[in-house]
Hints:
The complex is a heterodimer. By secondary structure, chain A is mostly helical. Chain A is 72% helix and 6% strand. Chain A has two domains: 3-44 and 168-387, no CATH class; 50-155, 3-Layer(aba) Sandwich (D-Maltodextrin-Binding Protein, domain 2), CATH 3.40.190.10. Chain A has 16 helices and four strands. Chain A is elongated. Chain A starts with a helix and ends with a helix. The mean pLDDT of chain A is 82. In chain B, helix 3 crosses helix 4 (106-119) and helix 3 (91-101) packs parallel to helix 5. Chain B is an alpha/beta fold. Chain B is built from nine helices and 14 strands. A six-stranded mixed beta sheet of chain B has the order 6-7-8-3-9-10, with helices on both faces. In chain B, strands 2-1-4-5 form a four-stranded antiparallel beta sheet, with helices on one face. A four-stranded antiparallel beta sheet of chain B has the order 12-13-11-14, with helices on one face. Chain B has two domains: 5-216, 3-Layer(aba) Sandwich (Rossmann fold), CATH 3.40.50; 224-283. Chain B starts with a strand and ends with a helix. The model of chain B has no long low-confidence stretch (mean pLDDT 88). At the A-B interface, helix 1 and helix 9 of A face helix 2, strand 6 and helix 3 of B.
Amino acid sequence: xxxxxxxxxxxxxxxxxxxxxxxxxxxxxxxxxxxxxxxxxxxxxxxxxxxxxxxxxxxxxxxxxxxxxxxxxxxxxxxxxxxxxxxxxxxxxxxxxxxxxxxxxxxxxxxxxxxxxxxxxxxxxxxxxxxxxxxxxxxxxxxxxxxxxxxxxxxxxxxxxxxxxxxxxxxxxxxxxxxxxxxxxxxxxxxxxxxxxxxxxxxxxxxxxxxxxxxxxxxxxxxxxxxxxxxxxxxxxxxxxxxxxxxxxxxxxxxxxxxxxxxxxxxxxxxxxxxxxxxxxxxxxxxxxxxxxxxxxxxxxxxxxxxxxxxxxxxxxxxxxxxxxxxxxxxxxxxxxxxxxxxxxxxxxxxxxxxxxxxxxxxxxxxxxxxxxxxxxxxxxxxxxxxxx
Amino acid sequence: xxxxxxxxxxxxxxxxxxxxxxxxxxxxxxxxxxxxxxxxxxxxxxxxxxxxxxxxxxxxxxxxxxxxxxxxxxxxxxxxxxxxxxxxxxxxxxxxxxxxxxxxxxxxxxxxxxxxxxxxxxxxxxxxxxxxxxxxxxxxxxxxxxxxxxxxxxxxxxxxxxxxxxxxxxxxxxxxxxxxxxxxxxxxxxxxxxxxxxxxxxxxxxxxxxxxxxxxxxxxxxxxxxxxxxxxxxxxxxxxxxxxxxxxxxxxxxxxxxxxxxxxxxxxxxxxxxxxxxxxxxxxxxxxxxxxxxxxxxxx
Lengths: 389, 300
């Protein structure tokens, strides 16, 4: 049996046993439902707010009203909202509808048109209403000047500009970054503790002795890292499925989420290899499972601190450093990509450094594990494990 | 004849403590070998070294006359002193997985695991989790794990520790059957009297050093603490002083100390030439007594 085959057998057992536990299915279900809600909810909430009710006072101006409604309808796409017209008989009635918030805006068509709106509200809609009224008046004047309907259509063929709300996009980006860093933080923390605990249990109940008689220590460690890591990726996949489905059916994603999800997968793999290898090696130093928390405390602290800094400083100089530094980049870089702050150079530097660190950590981690797993008696200190031949 | 497994000059220190000091051990083919000694003598350390779990500071290991390789070790079976099983795994899954680590296919592993579970009276518990088994059952699963791949050499570290007498008897049967079917076996124990009838060859260790080793019958025959008991009074003039001497005498009869290697049958014949003997018996030293003898010599 080759080392690779032994590693795969160890990883296969980890996977099989992990997916037999209810807890992993609960985690996957929570991530899937959370992601699904995240994909559906904004659309569901938007359908209520992105419809404008427009009261129009007809008052015998049927042709004018029709022309105005057509002009405003033409702006529907630019306005990025549905429109519902409510015909009312008088201006007083229209005013009371606006007062009672039954409609967003009211329009009295005629030679001296009037727009009724609550103070400080619906500025975008009012701008489009004014444009539609101006367009209606222009249409009427051009007709009066003897232009044919075709000529008038040519004159008025100007696409209204689409209103792009920059602040809203920024908010989406920040939300995407916050969600991703939270998911990466929780996943890495949970899986890291799982890997360390798994190694500590194997050492404490001496199953490691049975296994070390058959397979190399590196196969045991990396089999666990691969097994636990795949469980983590499966969890992320559960969260990515609703995103992919939404894209497949033509839905829009929140700003920054697409690239950030893709980046998360790459940096999650890096993070998993780094943190699970270190956690597994630290787990091999303890004598009893209860000591695992203490052994991995520095690593847990690093992940918690990275998460907190990713929330507050991702778009600052410190954030840039953390997104490139290998032990913090798995959480910070996807966050910066979601925010749109990461340059191509930052991304490449982060990846190259991350991969190089993986090679170092894998070698050092395997050596610490090999020395720790066979040590009995008091807890072996990290420095001692590193010094041992 | 070349031993199957031989360890030569194995030394191991843990900090200032010497765990093994130039220990030699041999496992001849087809023999049940007992590595015996009190707790802390270094037995487990030696077994961990044999299985490559520890690398010794000095000494060599040979299998069939050449240096031991990882491939050799994969063909052996090991049951450590402190039982090591995945408690959340199902019994059959665990055994098949262990067999596959030893190089068996899934199908062969399953066939072999079911066969062993049947032999060990665990048929019907295949789908149970290890955590649901009693201590004795878990012990048998551990033994099945060590035997799942049909090992060339079975190594059991303290297999009887913590077992009740019924479980000890049951495990002894399995060990005896394994040896009878031509299997090679090395086991350790600190319960010397418990394994008295199992060992053919022993290596006695104390404080990291070998104090006695060899064929059990031979060691007992060579012991100066062997007695012939007869139910009659014996005149010293009847005896060959090179073969025996009177140790004690009372109304129930006489105890004669046999010289090392003396033939008790000939001593008995010497007595029978002078009087009728209705009841007699040879009292050979137990393994514990051999150990005490050996450590006593060491201490002197």
